[in-house]
C-alpha cells in the first residue's frame, strides 16, 4: 500500500511541476485576454521552469526535492500575481474551427502514440525517422537523469554539442516519476498542440481567412513536392508501409522531406522551436502592449537552447517585418540619393522599433539569449566553426540544376509563391532571407540539417500561398476546381508519406534490452565509462541506463562535429588485446561485447577482465581496479 501511494505521489509530482509552470507562465500576462497569450505563456512558463532547474542542476544532481522546490515557488508566485482571465468565450468559439483543429491534433497525437516507445515488458517500439532519432533523445535524457554532467554521453571527455533543453526537461519529468515514454511524450504533446493552434491562428491573422488557415495547416502536415510522380510510375499503385518516402529520394534529387514525418515527429528540438516561432510571431502581429512584447522577447531568448535555428528565424522575420512595414519605395536617380535613401530607411526602421514597443521585445530577447550563448562557449565549445559557405544547399551546384531541384522539391506551392507574395512582400521578406541563407551557408556538419531553417521558410510560404488559393476558391466554379486540384497536388506526396508512416512499426528495444539496462542502472556507478562493441545507435547502456560511452553511434558523433576515426581505431585495438594503455588513459570501467562479435575479441585479454553479466545478446565485463596498476 505504501509503495502504491509513493508511485501515485511521484506521478503527481511531474504533473504538478508542468501545471505550475504553465499557469505561472500564463499568469505573467496578469490579464489574460486571448488564446494567443495562453499559448505563449504556457511555453514561457515551461522554459523558465526548465532553466531554473538547470541552474540548480549546475551545482547539484537532479532529484525530487529540486522539482518540489521549483513547483512550490511557482505556485507561490501564481498566488502573488493573482492573474485574471478575461477571455470572452461566447465570442471566440467557432465549432467548425475547433472540430478541424481537433482532427489535426488527433492525427498528431496518434503518431506520437505509435512512434514514442509503445510496448511494455516485451520491448519498446518506434517507427520511421523517429526510430533513429528517439534513441539519441533517450540517451541525453537519461544521462541528465542519472549522472551530473554536461559532457556528451556519446563521446567521453567532450561537452555536449546539441540544443539539449528539450531532453533536460524530459529528465526533470523522469526524476519526477514519469516513465521514459511519458517523459518524452508529454512535452511533445504539449508543444505539438501549441504548434498546431499557433500556426493556424498565425495563418488566419496573416490571410484574414479561416479557409486559408485551414488550407495552410493541411499543407504543413502533408507537405511535399513532385515526388509523387515516381509513385505514378511504379508498377502497382499501392498504399502501404513498403513504399519509398516520396518526399526524400536523394537519388532523384528530392531532399526536402515532409515536415511532419521527418522533423516534427522525430526531431524534438524542431517541435519545440517551431512552436515558439509561430507563437511569438503571432503575438507580435496581434498584440501591441509592452507586457506582451516583453514576454514574447523572453520566450524567444529562452528558446535558444531548445532550438537555436528558431531563435535566428524569429530575429530575422520580426526584424525585417518591422524594418520595412512603414518604409516607402521611392526610386533613387543617382548614388547620392541611393545612399540617402538607405540612411533614411535605416533611421525609419529603428524608429519603428522604438515606437512600436519592439525595444521591449528585442531587449528581453537579448537579455535571455546572451547567457545561453556564453554557456555554449563555456560548456559546449565553439559550435560556430560548423558554419561554411555551400551554395545551393544539397542541390546540383549549377544554377539550372538548383532551379530544377527546388521545383521538384517545392512543387505547386513554390510555383505559386511569386503570385501569392508579390503584394505582401514586406511581410514575406524575412522568410525569403531564411531561404537565401539556407542556400548559401551550411550551419551544421550534416548539410541536410539546413532543413530545420528551410522548414520555417516553407511554413511562412505556405501561409501566403494558402491565402492565394482561398481567393481562388471564392471565385467561379472553374477557379474552384483549379484551386482544389492545386491543393490536392500540393498535398499528394505528403499524403503518401503519412499513409506509409501509418504502417511502419519496428522494435527498438527487446525485453532483453530492457532487463539489461535495468541491471546496468542497479549495479554500476552512474559515472562509469563504458566501451561498447559493436557500436550501435540503440544500445541500452547509453539509451536506457544513461551511462557514458567512449564512443557512441558514428552518425551522431559526426553530426556533432567530432572526428571519431582515432577512437574507432582505439576500440579495435582494445578488442584485439592491444589496448591496455587506452583503457587506462580514458579510465574505461566496463566493456559490453555483442555475442555475435566474440570471435573478434582477444581471448587472453578477456581472461584479464571480469565477466559480470551474460545474456543472449550481451556480455558485460568489468575492468578490475588493479588492471592499470
Overview features:
629 residues, alpha/beta, five-stranded mixed β-sheet, three-stranded antiparallel β-sheet, 26 helices, 12 strands, 63% helix
* Biggest sheet, spatial arrangement of strands: 9-8-10-12-11
Spans with pLDDT under 50 lasting ≥5 residues? Answer: 1-5, 328-335
Largest beta-sheet details: 5 strands, mixed
Strand pairing plus helix content: what structural class? alpha/beta
Fraction of helical residues = 55-70%
**How much β-strand is present in the residues?**
5-15%
Shape: globular
**DSSP, total strands:** 12
* Computed CA radius of gyration, to the nearest angstrom: 26 Å
Overall average pLDDT: 90
Give the helix tally: 26
Distance between the termini: 50 Å
Describe this structure in words.
This protein is of the alpha/beta class. Helices cover 63% and strands 7% of the residues. The chain has helices at 2-27, 35-57, 64-81, 89-92, 95-115, 128-146, 165-175, 180-207, 210-221, 228-232, 259-264, 268-286, 290-302, 308-324, 335-355, 358-380, 399-421, 425-438, 451-473, 477-502, 511-523, 540-543, 554-559, 565-576, 580-586, 603-607, and strands at 31-32, 84-85, 119-120, 123-126, 388-389, 441-442, 506-510, 529-533, 548-549, 590-594, 610-614, 618-622. The strands form four sheets. The chain has a five-stranded mixed sheet, with no helix packed on it. It has a three-stranded antiparallel sheet with strand order 3-4-7.
Amino acid at each position: 500500500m505504501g509503495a502504491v501511494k509513493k508511485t501515485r505521489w511521484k506521478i503527481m509530482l511531474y504533473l504538478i511541476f508542468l501545471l505550475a509552470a504553465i499557469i505561472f507562465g500564463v499568469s505573467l500576462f496578469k490579464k489574460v485576454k486571448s488564446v494567443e497569450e495562453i499559448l505563449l505563456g504556457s511555453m514561457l512558463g515551461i522554459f523558465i521552469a526548465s532553466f531554473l532547474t538547470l541552474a540548480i542542476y549546475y551545482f547539484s544532481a537532479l532529484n525530487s526535492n529540486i522539482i518540489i522546490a521549483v513547483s512550490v515557488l511557482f505556485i507561490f508566485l501564481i498566488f502573488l500575481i493573482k492573474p485574471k482571465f478575461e477571455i470572452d468565450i461566447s465570442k471566440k468559439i467557432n465549432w467548425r474551427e475547433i472540430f478541424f483543429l481537433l482532427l489535426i491534433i488527433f492525427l498528431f497525437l496518434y503518431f506520437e502514440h505509435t512512434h514514442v516507445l509503445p510496448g511494455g515488458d516485451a520491448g519498446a517500439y518506434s517507427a520511421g525517422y523517429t526510430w533513429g532519432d528517439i534513441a539519441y533523445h533517450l540517451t541525453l535524457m537519461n544521462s541528465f537523469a542519472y549522472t551530473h554532467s554536461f559532457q556528451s554521453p556519446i563521446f567521453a571527455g567532450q561537452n555536449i554539442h546539441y540544443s539539449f533543453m528539450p531532453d533536460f526537461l524530459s529528465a526533470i519529468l523522469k526524476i519526477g516519476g514519469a516513465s521514459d515514454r511519458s517523459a518524452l511524450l508529454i512535452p511533445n504533446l504539449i508543444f505539438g498542440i501549441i504548434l498546431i493552434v499557433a500556426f493556424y491562428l498565425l495563418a488566419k491573422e496573416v490571410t484574414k481567412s479561416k479557409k486559408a488557415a485551414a488550407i495552410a495547416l493541411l499543407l504543413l502536415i502533408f507537405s511535399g513536392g513532385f515526388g509523387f510522380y515516381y509513385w505514378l510510375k511504379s508498377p502497382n499503385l499501392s498504399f502501404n508501409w513498403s513504399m519509398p518516402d516520396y518526399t526524400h529520394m536523394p537519388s532523384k534529387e528530392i531532399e526536402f522531406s515532409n515536415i511532419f514525418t521527418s522533423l516534427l515527429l522525430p526531431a524534438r528540438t524542431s517541435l519545440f522551436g517551431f512552436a515558439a516561432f509561430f507563437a511569438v510571431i503571432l503575438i507580435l502581429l496581434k498584440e501591441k502592449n509592452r507586457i506582451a512584447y516583453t514576454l514574447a522577447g523572453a520566450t524567444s531568448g529562452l528558446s535558444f537552447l531548445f532550438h537555436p535555428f528558431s531563435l535566428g528565424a524569429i530575429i530575422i522575420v520580426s526584424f525585417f517585418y518591422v524594418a520595412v512595414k512603414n518604409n516607402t519605395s521611392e526610386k533613387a536617380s543617382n548614388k547620392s540619393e541611393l545612399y540617402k535613401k538607405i540612411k533614411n530607411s535605416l533611421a525609419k526602421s529603428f524608429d519603428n522599433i522604438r515606437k512600436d514597443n519592439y525595444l521591449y521585445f528585442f531587449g528581453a530577447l537579448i537579455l535571455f539569449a546572451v547567457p545561453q550563448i556564453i554557456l555554449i562557449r563555456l560548456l559546449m565549445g565553439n559550435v560556430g566553426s560548423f558554419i561554411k559557405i555551400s551554395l545551393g544547399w544539397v542541390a546540383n551546384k549549377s544554377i539550372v540544376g538548383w532551379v530544377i531541384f527546388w521545383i521538384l522539391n517545392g512543387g505547386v506551392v513554390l510555383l505559386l509563391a511569386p503570385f501569392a507574395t508579390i503584394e505582401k512582400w514586406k511581410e514575406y521578406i524575412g522568410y525569403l532571407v531564411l531561404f537565401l541563407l539556407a542556400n548559401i551557408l551550411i550551419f551544421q556538419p550534416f548539410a541536410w540539417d539546413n532543413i530545420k531553417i528551410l522548414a520555417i521558410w516553407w511554413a511562412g510560404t505556405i501561409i501566403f500561398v494558402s491565402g492565394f488559393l482561398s481567393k481562388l476558391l471564392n471565385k467561379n466554379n472553374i477557379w474552384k476546381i483549379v484551386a482544389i486540384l492545386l491543393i490536392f497536388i500540393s498535398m499528394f506526396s505528403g499524403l503518401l508519406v503519412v499513409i506509409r508512416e501509418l504502417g511502419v512499426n519496428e522494435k527498438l528495444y527487446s525485453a532483453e534490452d530492457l532487463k539489461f539496462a535495468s541491471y546496468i542502472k542497479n549495479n554500476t556507478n552512474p559515472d562509469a565509462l563504458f566501451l561498447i562493441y559493436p557500436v550501435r545507435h540503440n544500445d541500452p547502456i547509453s539509451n536506457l541506463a544513461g551511462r557514458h560511452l567512449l564512443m557512441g553511434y558514428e552518425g551522431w558523433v559526426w553530426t556533432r562535429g567530432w572526428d571519431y576515426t582515432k577512437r574507432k581505431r582505439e576500440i579495435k585495438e582494445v578488442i584485439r588485446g592491444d589496448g591496455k594503455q587506452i583503457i587506462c588513459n580514458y579510465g574505461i570501467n566496463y566493456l559490453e561485447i555483442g555475442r555475435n562479435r566474440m570471435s573478434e575479441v582477444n581471448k587472453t585479454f578477456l581472461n584479464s577482465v571480469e565477466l559480470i553479466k551474460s545474456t543472449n545478446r550481451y556480455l558485460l565485463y568489468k575492468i578490475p581496479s588493479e588492471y592499470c596498476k
